């Protein structure tokens, strides 16, 4: 049986907002941090990591996304602030925050989780983390140049990157390579337009 490493995500559809996030990422890359930065074309917001899923399960996940798209209308999210997990004093994951649209994203996540359980999709990885919408910029291996990074956290704490409309949800494949993951679309579900 074949498996696909996959996740459900939304992408930043507003070009101006995306450009601001990419510019920040490039500025951070120039700080000499010890880590792996997300490639420009891979920037996204993960709704749900699925893990290694059987190809036979993919069709059912598409049905889950179609259901979500039938009950959720397009909406906007606003991105602002720079932060880190677990915190900015000991950063491991650097992210751009979501300051509005959080409730809609959390609602989508709840629907997906509920549908996965209802359909008995046992090979989908359980997600124990509390849902915290964010856009990952980098994953750090050490605290090299931490003081320079802390300065950026302060500078970008309330920075407004902008808004983007969410009009679709994507099922994405993640192929791991020595130079980093390659993401590709498996399926796109377009949210229903209000009549």
Automatic annotation (TrEMBL):
Q: What EC numbers are recorded for this enzyme? A: 3.1.4.58
Q: Give the motif span (HXTX 1).
A: 44-47
Catalysed reactions, semicolon-separated: a 3'-end 2',3'-cyclophospho-ribonucleotide-RNA + H2O = a 3'-end 2'-phospho-ribonucleotide-RNA + H(+)
Pfam families linked to this entry: AKAP7_NLS
Return the motif ranges for HXTX 2.
134-137
Keyword terms of this UniProt record: Hydrolase
Tell me the GO molecular function terms: 2',3'-cyclic-nucleotide 3'-phosphodiesterase activity; RNA 2',3'-cyclic 3'-phosphodiesterase activity
- According to the entry, every stretch annotated as the A-kinase anchor protein 7-like phosphoesterase domain falls at 7-176
Q: Which residues form the active site?
A: 44, 134
Family matches, as Gene3D superfamilies: Cyclic phosphodiesterase
Question: Keyword Ribonucleoprotein, does the record have it?
Answer: no
Write out the function statement from the record: Hydrolyzes RNA 2',3'-cyclic phosphodiester to an RNA 2'-phosphomonoester.
Q: Which PANTHER family match?
A: RNA 2',3'-CYCLIC PHOSPHODIESTERASE (PTHR35561:SF1)
NCBIfam families assigned: 2_5_ligase
- UniProt similarity note: Belongs to the 2H phosphoesterase superfamily. ThpR family.
What protein name applies here?
Answer: RNA 2',3'-cyclic phosphodiesterase
Gene it is expressed from: thpR
